[in-house]
């Protein structure tokens, strides 16, 4: 994802369709590490492609694992419990699912086989406590140095050192279940005898330990469990590849779409594929909480179907120990409830990617909500008087995804307001295509979807400016000038006579076009170069004479107005196609300046050109465009004039973005 600084969400109204979830982060990184430690090659299907899995894959590669893509399947050849390089520096970003288990595995392997490994991450990772895991490993005899602050990464793991595995090791269970998961995944590497781990205090996030135990079974390790207090890794344990393994869809990510269905799927259910009644993930129990708030939910082995039931939703009080990550979604659902919602037993929120209790409270208050918080609880009152809000995401993917649901405030507010999500690319940690997936299943009033219209004469740089503005805002882009050429090309490819207006109009209405970064795609095929050919220009002239084609393409242009917004370039975007555009810009570079630009472009491509002829041609086209009967070229009355003759494209972009910022309510 291009790292746009913010994403503005217009007021959204409804939801329908089907969502296919990405693979579970928790399962993906566990599977990768187990496959990396095991003997043999494991074919991993449906692996999550995200920041967290990327750092795990890079670490495994540095440690000597052989990793190969075979189509959509990842082939991982493991180490068989043997260290190959005896030294490495591993950067693990903000991925707790990589930092914690790799710390345990490498500490034990370095102790028994020798070596030195340094593990570090982003600044936030260096603030996330790991002291309880370090203490447990030191209790076995591992040599671990905290390189900055005691109890926190970065770490140095070194050996050899003698291990003492004959007595149970203790680990606290009330800070993070990842500490116990790390030990359970690492200890089979050194279990010459039975090795016992005892949990001190209440174990939080038990469902994640269930995932760990189930995956250990798949790789040949049968851990004996006595309640949630004592775990025994049997003597002689050895990791063996299961051959192939499939990663479930992410149940935590499903929570946003379960909530979406409960809030906005009124007539038909929203279908969610990838998790269901047979999921091993504890966060699938979010379904129970959503039902308690009023959602109507059906399920099958690998799917859910959700629609709105009670409205407004019902406030509730819930112990969320069993759904620690998904429970964050309930905090935003609470805004749509009939009474306050209290979420308890969420102390683990404090030590995640950010202090999530503090973060959720702060951002909910920006929207106007009344919020109370404690050490391990949060209470949210329903909200009716909504305020436009800029949501700080704290580089936390779940904060960004949760607050996208605030865009449905128009369903309960007297006056709907937009919501701005800062640093939306943070969703790449677990769900890189989250916002694209969301926008594919939501609907809203077109009048509430913002449009920036960029008009101007031929060769004024409209398309280039529209591209960079749209990229900066995360908006769709429309190159209206390409429509007639694409219609002529598509009709010719289909064997249709270009003089047959009705048939050509049918082709025009069904064009599957998309634009971006100076390219035009037709049904996924890049046709940019063909559109620039002279023959294609002749086709465009022939089809443009048909009124039915013009009507069809006008409707096609209107259909590009989709969430979160549109930047449209052409000669009549602000006057005829989108007269209600929120911002209209008209480029005014002189014909002489435009001729110079066109001349440089042609020379760069090895095409001979005469600058004076180019200028005369542009002046003639300007005159024709201004006097044509249909949509003559002229600025909209409320357009802002932009003479970009002496500006770089970056300067023009920044000026348009500044104008845009002044039109927004934030």
Describe this structure in words.
It is a single chain. The protein is of the alpha/beta class and 666 residues long. The chain has 4 domains: 212 residues, Enolpyruvate transferase domain (UDP-n-acetylglucosamine1-carboxyvinyl-transferase, Chain, Alpha-beta prism), CATH 3.65.10.10; 222 residues, Enolpyruvate transferase domain (UDP-n-acetylglucosamine1-carboxyvinyl-transferase, Chain, Alpha-beta prism); 130 residues, P-loop containing nucleotide triphosphate hydrolases (Rossmann fold), CATH 3.40.50.300; 88 residues, P-loop containing nucleotide triphosphate hydrolases (Rossmann fold, 3-Layer(aba) Sandwich). Helix content is 36%, strand content 20%. The chain has 22 helices and 33 strands. The strands form 9 sheets. It has a 5-stranded parallel β-sheet with strand order 27-31-26-32-33, covered by helices on one side. Strands 3-16-18-17 form a 4-stranded mixed β-sheet, with helices on one face. α11 links the parallel β23 and β24. α3 runs parallel beside α5, α14 crosses α17 and α20 packs across α21. The mean pLDDT is 92.
Tags for this model:
single chain, 33 strands, Rossmann fold, UDP-n-acetylglucosamine1-carboxyvinyl-transferase, Chain, 4 domains, 666 residues, alpha/beta
């Amino acid at each position: 994802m291009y790292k746009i600084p913010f994403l503005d969400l217009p007021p959204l109204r409804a939801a329908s369709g089907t969502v296919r979830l990405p693979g579970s982060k928790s399962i993906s990184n566990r599977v990768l590490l187990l496959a990396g430690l095991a003997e043999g090659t494991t074919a991993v299907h449906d692996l999550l492609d995200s920041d967290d899995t990327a750092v795990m894959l890079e670490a495994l590669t540095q440690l000597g694992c052989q990793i190969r893509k075979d189509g959509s399947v990842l082939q991982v050849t493991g180490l068989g419990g043997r260290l190959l390089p005896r030294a490495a520096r591993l950067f693990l970003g903000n991925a707790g699912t990589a930092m914690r288990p790799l710390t345990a595995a490498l500490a034990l392997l370095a102790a028994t086989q020798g070596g030195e490994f340094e593990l570090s991450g982003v600044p936030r990772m260096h603030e996330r406590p790991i002291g309880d895991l370090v203490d447990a490993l030191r209790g076995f005899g591992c040599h671990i140095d905290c390189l900055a602050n005691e109890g926190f990464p970065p770490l140095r793991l070194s050996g050899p050192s003698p291990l003492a595995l004959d007595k149970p090791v203790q680990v606290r269970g009330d800070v993070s279940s990842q500490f116990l998961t790390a030990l359970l995944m690492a200890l089979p590497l050194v279990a010459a005898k039975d090795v016992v781990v005892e949990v001190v205090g209440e174990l939080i996030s038990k469902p994640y330990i269930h995932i760990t135990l189930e995956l250990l079974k798949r790789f040949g390790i049968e851990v004996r469990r006595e309640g949630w207090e004592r775990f025994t890794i049997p003597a002689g344990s050895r990791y063996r590849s299961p051959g192939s393994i499939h990663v479930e869809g992410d149940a935590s990510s499903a929570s946003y779409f379960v909530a979406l269905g409960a809030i906005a799927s009124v007539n038909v259910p929203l279908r969610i594929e990838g998790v269901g009644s047979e999921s091993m993930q504890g966060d699938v129990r979010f379904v129970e909480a959503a039902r308690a708030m009023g959602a109507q939910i059906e399920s099958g082995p690998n799917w859910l179907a959700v629609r709105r039931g009670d409205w407004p939703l019902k406030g509730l009080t819930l112990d969320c120990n069993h759904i620690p990550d998904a429970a964050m979604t309930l905090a935003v659902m609470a805004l749509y409830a009939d009474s306050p919602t209290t979420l308890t037993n969420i102390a683990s929120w404090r030590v995640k990617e950010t202090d999530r209790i503090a973060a959720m409270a702060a951002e909910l208050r920006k929207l106007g909500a009344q919020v109370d918080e404690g050490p391990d609880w949060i209470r949210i009152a329903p909200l009716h008087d909504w305020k436009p809000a800029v949501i700080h995401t704290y580089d936390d993917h779940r904060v960004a995804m949760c607050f996208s649901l605030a865009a449905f405030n128009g369903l309960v507010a007297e006056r709907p307001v937009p919501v701005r999500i800062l640093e939306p690319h943070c969703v790449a940690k677990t769900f890189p295509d989250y916002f694209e997936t969301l926008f594919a299943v939501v609907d809203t009033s077109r009048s509430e979807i913002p449009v920036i219209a960029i008009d101007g004469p031929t060769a004024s740089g409209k398309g280039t400016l529209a591209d960079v503005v749209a990229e900066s805002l995360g908006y769709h882009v429309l190159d209206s000038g390409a429509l007639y050429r694409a219609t002529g090309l598509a009709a010719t490819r289909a064997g249709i006579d270009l003089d047959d207006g009705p048939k050509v109009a049918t082709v025009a209405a069904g064009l599957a076009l998309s634009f971006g970064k100076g390219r035009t795609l037709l049904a996924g095929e890049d046709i940019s170069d063909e559109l620039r050919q002279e023959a294609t220009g002749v086709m465009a002239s022939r089809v443009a004479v048909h009124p039915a084609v013009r009507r069809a393409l006008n409707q096609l242009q209107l259909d590009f107005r989709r969430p979160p917004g549109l930047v449209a370039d052409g000669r009549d975007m602000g006057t005829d196609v989108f007269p209600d555009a929120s911002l209209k810009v008209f480029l005014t570079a002189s014909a002489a300046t435009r001729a110079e630009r066109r001349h440089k472009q042609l020379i760069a491509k090895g095409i001979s050109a005469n600058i004076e002829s180019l200028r005369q041609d542009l002046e003639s086209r300007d005159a024709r465009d201004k006097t044509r009967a249909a949509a003559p070229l002229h600025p909209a009355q409320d357009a802002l004039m932009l003479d970009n003759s002496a500006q770089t494209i970056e300067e023009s972009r920044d000026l348009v973005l500044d104008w845009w910022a002044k039109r927004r309510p934030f």
